[in-house]
């Protein structure tokens, strides 16, 4: 008997146990926040391996964010010591897709060393394509980009998009979609949505490929199922259609990615597609105090519901929820920082017991300043992450070009960085020539045909750049790839370039250090294969794979280190999904911020309410919400109205600080008139 497994099963409640031990058919766990859905997944992985004897490499568990995947991996790891967990896939959907693409490059018609375009690269490509037609503004590009992304998420091919176009705009977008896909292919590149789209389409079109993957994955587990989009669902469905062995867990009240194509209806679709689906509901919450749970339940009751759920908790009543009204955003940030400082001592808590959540990344800026002022260690997830720094984008472009010389965007970014006197005219001529010849910019840059188009100096400079890259590529092939990469940055004197461009030497120093950190990370990533894409085969991880993983992580806006050292956690409400903290602060409970103005205008308040629900249910012991009466936006001080969501919380469990008087509107108007009259009098 497996003692550890038995003990573990004993800690579960009967319904959770049922979900873990039901293995013969499809299983859906539909339950509210903190009810142990993720725990069911992690325990079930261990159960499948330890109790049912399923090899770890036959199991794939997927979730949404890298952070959640890491957490899951950690929890599973504890139950699978030694080699038991070898070959297990615990990753994000996108990493799983990346691995499928990597394994099926040839069938997909890609050459090895493909590039992963981040949204900025994709936008640059679209901009190029659109400028061919007319002058376009950023808004238009964004709209088309969003539309293309939606099509891919819904598995609509360019041909289908074209034939279904209903008006001129759609027709235009569909034609761009076609050109965009064609160009990506020519660059030997894929974009973020392709990571799911390509495998799904491939599985549909190539039965042998699908059969191969069905042999490879026997059991799938999906966390946060409510946020899967059509293509992700299709991927799961295709893989699992025969065996019907999977477990998905989700909570329709936590669906917060509709704007990115998520389809909560996939929950219902599942019942239609898999008639033998077993649905299990969990009702006990193990995370939060009664007060926090009641607040969450009361708030979400304002949304219409397909599935009724009741959540209860035995964690005791707990403290009131505090709502703190501040004069302005600066006072708000100051207040949160000083609160954390004092409460940490009072509660003898750790820094990492505190999380501050907000709607938009910009809200973190002031908070960072205040936290630094008090010397409070913190970790900011997402936002202006490591990867959006210029020096890192340069370095990434070098890496990308090294593994895929056809990556024109990478070429363009660094051909003149550091300065090589290769100007826009040269680039334009080169680009025209490359288009005509149907080759990449890199390949074109050393072709003889250029001689007729460019002056000798320009030719020479281009050729020199070409040789630089070619030489490093050769050295990478022959021996120590990392050493070759490191010496490249020295040869081009990237550091000197940083010094020339930085406002102060210390800034340049820091930037150069960032580049070395990136390369160290690359090295670690090659050694550890740490993104959960260990596909069971024993092949050693090469630099190409490691670089594409870095790009993927970059896109998913994760920070460089995976340190779980003792730091206050700063993250957006979106990024907080699935996580939990003893003490949670939610900032900016104001109309136009939460709910966000765009959502108010678009009439998608329900999704904002779910977002607030996600935030509230992250808290285990205490929850504090803050807001500002005034906030600077577009260089102006604006008056803020408290969020409608505050009115939807149970009044008795809330203690306000500085609550604005509930004036009747008539009085307020009068007071306003008085003020205007007073002002007029003053001016006269
Ligand atoms: P979310 O919807 O926010 O993702 P969830 O349903 O995935 O939440 P978990 O994160 O799995 O919930 O569990 C919430 C907390 O409850 C965790 O700290 C977990 O360890 C604990 N927990 C889950 N099940 C039990 C149980 N049977 N006994 C004690 N604690 C439990
Ligand atoms: Mg969870």
What proportion of the residues is helical, as a percent range? Answer: 40-55%
Describe the biggest sheet?
8 strands, mixed
Q: How does the helix and strand content classify structurally?
A: alpha/beta
Mean pLDDT: 87
- The total count of strands amounts to 18
Shape: globular
Number of helices: 30
Strand content: 5-15%
Present as ligands are: adenosine-5'-triphosphate, magnesium ion
Could you list the spans in which at least 5 consecutive residues all have pLDDT below 50?
530-540
Radius of gyration: 27 Å
Distance between the termini: 92 Å
Task: Give the structure's gist in a few sentences.
This protein has 684 residues and is of the alpha/beta class. Helix content is 52%, strand content 13%.
Q: Could you explain the architecture of this structure?
A:
The chain is of the alpha/beta class and 684 residues long. It is 52% helix and 13% strand. The protein contains 30 helices and 18 strands. The chain starts with a helix and ends with a helix. Residues 11-13, 16, 31, 33-39, 251, 254, 286-287, 578, 580, 617 line the site of adenosine-5'-triphosphate (ATP). Rep helicase is a single-stranded DNA-dependent ATPase involved in DNA replication; it can initiate unwinding at a nick in the DNA. It binds to the single-stranded DNA and acts in a progressive fashion along the DNA in the 3' to 5' direction. ATP binds at residues 31-38, 287.
